[in-house]
Specification:
Structural class of chain B: alpha/beta
Number of helices of chain B: 15
Number of helices of chain A: 23
CATH topology of the largest domain in chain B: Rossmann fold
Shape of chain B: globular
Helix content of chain A: 25-40%
Strand order of the largest sheet of chain A: 2-3-1-4-5-6
CATH architecture of the largest domain in chain B: 3-Layer(aba) Sandwich
CATH architecture of the largest domain in chain A: 3-Layer(aba) Sandwich
Number of strands of chain B: 16
Largest sheet of chain A: 6 strands, mixed
Number of domains of chain B: 2
Helix content of chain B: 25-40%
Structural class of chain A: alpha/beta
Oligomer: heterodimer
CATH class of the largest domain in chain A: Alpha Beta
Radius of gyration of chain B: 21 Å
CATH topology of the largest domain in chain A: Pyruvate-ferredoxin Oxidoreductase, domain 3
Radius of gyration of chain A: 41 Å
Largest interface: A-B, 46 and 50 residues
């Protein structure tokens, strides 16, 4: 009988190698084979043994091999750790995976074969430097010692390795061909394999078994410090605290760090929260009131109970500005910049450039700054004082605003190094109906004139008003005319689902008594016999989706009807005032415009894209970066790649408690007539703190301690700053922390073996 | 020399004719158990992994997912659940298999009683390992601790025997409506690759008929509830019928083994007597893989015999008595125990003692190999030496 003993580390593939060798030997003739491993601890890197018996007859021994004929060493570093060569038969041989010359092992006094199996394996892409999988090369070398048929050897390897059959077969072939040694063939090993006779040597006993061996109770224990047993090197997959992007931040067009300002608000660090918010948004008081809050709409908490009332938190923080003085920014740049339009985009761009040290002048056509915030949003949604205060702060920082200055680019080219056009969309669009000019009013103009000069267009108590459109302008017009005592009805050609107005505004309008007729559109406007304004309306139905993805409204023939109104107000869309381009045909778009004149011209705000205050602010932030980069000749790369967003599927909702949303305190007056008071009073401080506590902290560790509690190896520690940290000396990479993290703030990915 | 060996390198073995309708493969014990489940056309495998059993259920999952085996495979959340699922499926009339080891078997203990007393035929494999202090190596204390649950227990010596015994066990289980546990030694069998003759499935089909519903199977035309309270008079009667069938196991198993030998060509018995005759002065008594090593050692000693216990529960009293009846009165018996059951004597000694009541032989107990302690030939030699020179009634070998 031939007996082979192998020494390796767990993970090098020796157990598989011995199983494959058993299969190979069984094909070399009529052999009985027996191969099995002996594990120490069950883990990668631990020293293990494997045994192989090959015999011409039944193998009557199922125990470890103590006196092998051949010892094979898969890992050279074991030579200093384990008594690898113990019990080797006098005539026995060793095969070692090494780059060293055989002379290095001369002291053994045995027949030595060497094979650089690690190098061969790495050459064939088997395993990594830290954990080379050397088994195929070792099989090749062992096979050569026994004159195995290379075809059988390679075939058996291909069939039995768990991965990379070709690379393994090739590595075995290389090893088969280059194994080094003095004795070929090794007749001793061949004889042992083919021996038929009983080779059991007689055992002579002359021992005395002790009557009562003195043994104490040995329960398992570890008596050395844990630092002697760092288990981190078992790890192949590593958890890591990460900062992933939450949906609120991702969906804020202004780029606000929503998650963080909510967190700071919850910690009552209001000034800090305000400063952070202000970095992206100089109009928190405005946005807290009028933004549709894309953050809130996309809040992962919507999947659990209700999204956070981020608007109320933002509004509250906006009020903190009163406690924080604005400091004037000194001019440090030589270039002067002109901004046309003092709306949210223009003022934001101006502020950002002012903060970078530029002298910025904003030209505003109207007698008040604020753009659409001033002229288009009624006072009951946005009181003037809030807007005044936020604009004043921008001026305090150093931005110059010139009012009543309707300018075009040519007036600015001499003095300014760059011009930003941000004139908004203040010109209403047409219904393309006969008599439209004489018989209807433009909604956006009505709102502006009413707000700036109190002109009510002669609307009286009891007037029936038709408002055509479905956007915010239509809603604001309707709610304003309600307050003038009129009875407004909105006619919208699609359904409530397609309505572009902010849902909450629609709800409030309906609550105030505004009528909305859906799937209705005007086809004519004229005067009836009694000289009343008569509107012809037709029913619509929804057809195929149009280019906007919404279903196209199609008139239903024969459904026309005529209705009389005191006023017809259209609010079907706005465009920009092209006076700024001085008669030149320009297609506005975000950023630098292809302008032929000397001065570089940029564009931002509603005239370029968007339609909400927050989008205009984001547009202003961006254009300021681009102008700065242009003037300083820097590279400008707007963010293009889609970041990794934390989605509801990443949240472990089990670890959160349902908490009702804190709703704005809204007061609807009994009588709306001439009442332009703000409806909403926001939230009180204690509710702001409580609402902030509803945040799920998507993608951001909030020290909940789940990882600390669940880690089976106590490998989570709290550092001197009170943060949870992973102790990589002991983390075995089980991944329970990542699995149990409520907010997806722990990444768990395959890494190189930890150092 | 090289040419000569190359000529022998002609590929697959030339012994193919030794067992017709078989293939010879190199297979580890765990794979032999999985292979047997496939050959027996097991229809349901509830699985939960545990070292050193894991490769059994891994192999089964491979075979099921590749379509090689037509069965339903379900990952369960614990061994308790796995055995409960096995119980349910067996009630449904399915042929069921699962495998476990050590702690897993301990955890399933309660359900083992339920399966047996519901009289549900099934076969499971247990790869023996002990409990705390943590140990994954070979030991029989886990399955021996289930002696009284009502399960039939076979202990295999080789991968071949595991495969063959599983096939016989399904027949036995379904004939007597009893569950059977086939026990393998950890590593020495579970992870040992060796020559195994694998029968063709149609040969197995000839031996093991398709599963038919048993007396406790669910019959949708005749609905009934299971698991309700059983009053004393019924319980007593149920135990009587259990006992009546359990005492047939010894004879039935022997009959099944005879039929198996006829069809498959390999002979098994409840106990195997090696070199036991009037000349024998000492008989080693073994179960499982230690038997192979003992076989090798006693070849040198014409006056030493070996009794291998293959059917352990119900203990084959008649077979043991018959095997030892030829011994001289002064013969010595020496069980080798790879178990410690919390009593003075080991499990084999205890069972042998009651089987031998009234017989004249002296018996000395030898504990060796608990928790995977290797039992090489030299340890067997030591046991022989001690038994023949100065034995105590109970001896521990290789502890100092």
């Amino acid at each position: 009988m031939l007996e082979i003993r192998g020494h390796a580390r767990g993970g090098q593939g020796m157990v598989t190698a011995f199983e494959i060798l058993a299969k190979i030997f069984s094909q070399l003739g009529d052999f009985q084979v027996q191969a099995f491993p002996a594990f120490g601890v069950e883990r990668t890197g631990a020293p293990i043994q494997a045994f192989l018996r090959v015999a011409k007859k039944e193998i009557l021994n199922r125990s470890n091999i103590y006196n092998p004929n051949l010892i094979v060493v898969f890992d050279e570093s074991l030579l200093d750790m384990v008594p690898v060569f113990d019990g080797l038969k006098d005539q026995g041989a060793v095969l070692i995976n090494t780059e060293k010359p055989r002379s290095h092992f001369a002291d053994l006094g045995k027949t030595v074969y060497t094979i650089p199996a690690t190098r061969i394996s790495l050459d064939h892409g088997l395993g990594s430097k830290s954990l080379p999988i050397v088994n195929a090369a070792m099989i090749g070398a062992i096979g050569y010692l026994f004159d195995a048929n290379l075809d059988i050897l390679q075939q058996t390897i291909r069939k039995n390795v768990p991965a990379k059959p070709e690379a393994n077969a090739k590595a075995a072939k290389v090893a088969f061909e280059i194994v080094v040694g003095d004795v070929f063939p090794n007749t001793y090993l061949h004889e042992r394999m083919h021996a038929v006779g009983n080779n059991e040597e007689p055992v002579v006993f002359n021992f005395v078994e002790s009557d009562d061996p003195a043994i104490g109770i040995e329960a398992p224990f570890w008596s050395m410090p844990l630092s002697k047993n760092k288990t981190g090197n078992w790890r192949v997959v590593t958890p890591k605290y990460v900062d992933r992007r939450p949906p609120c931040n991702h969906n804020c067009p202004a780029g606000t760090d929503v998650r963080q300002f909510v967190k700071l608000a919850g910690e009552k660090k209001y000034a800090e929260a305000y400063e952070l918010l202000y970095e992206h948004n100089p109009f928190p008081g405005v946005c807290g009131r009028v933004c549709p809050h894309f953050c809130e709409q996309n809040c992962n908490r919507n999947e659990f109970d209700e999204g956070l009332n981020i608007g109320a938190i933002e509004r509250f923080l906006g009020e903190q500005a009163l406690n924080i003085p604005a400091e004037r920014v000194p001019v440090t740049q030589k270039e002067k910049i002109a901004v046309v339009g003092a709306g949210p985009a223009g003022l934001t761009a101006a502020l950002r450039l002012c903060e970078k040290g530029y002298a910025v002048t904003v030209f505003e056509a109207l007698p008040h700054a604020g753009g659409m915030m001033r002229s288009g949003i009624p006072k009951f949604r946005l009181p003037d004082a809030v807007l005044d205060q936020e604009i004043q702060r921008i001026q305090d920082k150093g931005v110059e605003i010139l009012l009543n200055k309707r300018v075009n680019i040519h007036e600015l080219t001499d003095e300014y190094a760059a011009v930003i056009t941000a004139v908004g969309s203040h010109v209403g669009t047409s219904l393309h109906l006969d008599n439209e000019e004489e018989l209807s009013l433009d909604g956006i103009t009505f709102l502006r004139e009413f707000k700036l000069s109190g002109k009510d267009a002669g609307i009286k108590k009891g007037d029936r008003i038709a408002i055509i459109g479905g956007g915010n302008t239509a809603i604001d017009v309707a709610r304003t005319t309600m307050r003038l005592g009129a009875e407004p009805t909105i006619y919208y050609r699609r359904t409530i689902k397609e309505m572009p107005a902010i849902a909450q505004e629609v709800e409030e309008a309906l609550a105030e008594g505004v009528h909305i007729r859906f799937l209705t559109a005007p086809t004519a406007i004229g005067k009836n016999k009694k000289d009343q304004t008569e509107l012809t309306l037709i029913d619509m139905e929804l057809g195929e989706p149009d280019e906007s993805g919404r279903r196209r409204p199609v008139p239903v023939a024969g459904t026309e009807k005529n209705l009389c109104f005191q006023k017809v107000i259209k609010a079907i869309g706005q465009r920009f005032d092209d006076f700024v381009f001085h008669g030149k045909e320009v297609e506005p778009k975000q950023g630098w415009l292809q302008w032929a004149d000397d001065v570089p011209v940029f564009c931002a705000g509603d005239m370029a894209w968007g339609g909400t205050v927050t989008e205009a602010i984001g547009s202003g932030n961006k254009v300021a970066e681009e102008v700065h980069a242009f003037l300083q000749e820097l590279e400008y790369h707007p963010e293009e790649t889609l970041p990794d967003i934390v989605l509801p599927k990443d949240i472990n909702f089990t670890y959160y408690l349902p908490i009702p949303k804190h709703r704005d305190r809204v007061k609807h007056p009994e009588d709306l007539y001439q009442n332009f008071e703000e409806l909403s009073a926001g939230l009180r401080e204690q509710d702001i703190v409580a609402e902030s506590a509803r945040c799920l902290h998507c993608g951001d560790c909030y020290s909940c301690g789940n990882c600390f509690n669940f880690c089976p190896d106590a490998a989570i520690l709290i550092d001197d700053q009170g943060r949870l940290r992973i102790d990589y000396d002991y983390c075995k990479g089980c991944g329970i922390c990542a699995e149990e993290c409520p907010c997806s703030a722990i990444e768990f990915t395959l890494t190189e073996m930890a150092s | 020399m090289k040419t000569e060996i190359l000529e022998k390198n002609t590929g697959l073995n030339k012994q193919a004719s030794r067992y017709p309708r078989h293939r010879q493969l190199i297979m580890k014990g765990n794979y032999a158990a999985a292979e047997a489940a496939k050959l027996c056309r097991v229809g349901f495998v509830p699985a939960y992994p545990i070292t050193p059993q894991t490769t059994i259920v891994e192999r089964l999952s491979e075979m099921v997912s590749s379509g090689e085996m037509d069965a339903k495979y379900t990952n369960m959340d614990s061994e308790h659940s796995a055995f409960a699922a096995a119980l349910g499926a067996a009630l449904g009339g399915e042929r069921v298999f699962t495998a476990t080891a050590g702690q897993g078997l301990f955890y399933a203990h309660e359900v083992l009683h339920a399966i047996a007393h519901f009289r549900l035929p099934m076969v499971i494999a247990n790869v023996g390992r002990p409990s705390i202090p943590w140990n994954i190596w070979s030991d029989q204390s886990d399955s021996l601790a289930q002696r009284d649950t009502g399960w039939v227990q076979f202990y295999g010596e080789s991968s071949q025997e595991v495969l063959d015994t599983m096939i016989q066990s399904y027949l036995l289980a379904e004939q007597l409506n009893l569950p059977v546990m086939v026990v393998l030694d950890a590593f020495y069998q579970s992870h040992t690759s060796e020559n195994v003759w694998v029968p063709d499935i149609d040969l197995v089909d000839e031996f093991l008929p398709a599963k038919v519903p048993g007396p406790m199977s669910i019959d949708i035309d005749n609905p009934k509830a299971f698991g309700g309270l059983m009053p004393p008079e019924h319980y007593n009667k149920l135990n009587y019928t259990y006992w009546r069938d359990a005492i047939q196991v010894e004879e039935k198993a022997e009959q099944i083994a005879r039929d198996f030998a006829t069809l498959f060509g390999r002979e098994y018995h409840n106990v195997e007597a090696i070199n036991i005759g009037p000349q024998t002065k000492l008989v080693l008594i073994t179960v499982s893989s230690i038997t192979s090593t003992a076989r090798g050692v006693i070849k040198k000693y014409p006056d030493i015999g070996l009794l291998k216990i293959r059917l352990f529960k119900p203990f084959p009293k008649a077979s043991v008595q018959e095997a030892l009846s030829v011994l001289p009165k002064d013969a010595i018996l020496a069980p080798v125990e790879r178990n410690y059951m919390g009593d003075r004597e080991g499990a084999i000694f205890q069972e042998m003692q009651r089987a031998l009541y009234g017989m004249p032989f002296k018996m000395y107990d030898f504990y060796a190999g608990a928790g995977g302690k290797d039992v090489p030939p030299v340890t067997i030699e030591k046991i022989i030496h001690l038994a023949r020179t100065n034995p105590k009634e109970v001896n521990w070998v290789d502890i100092s």
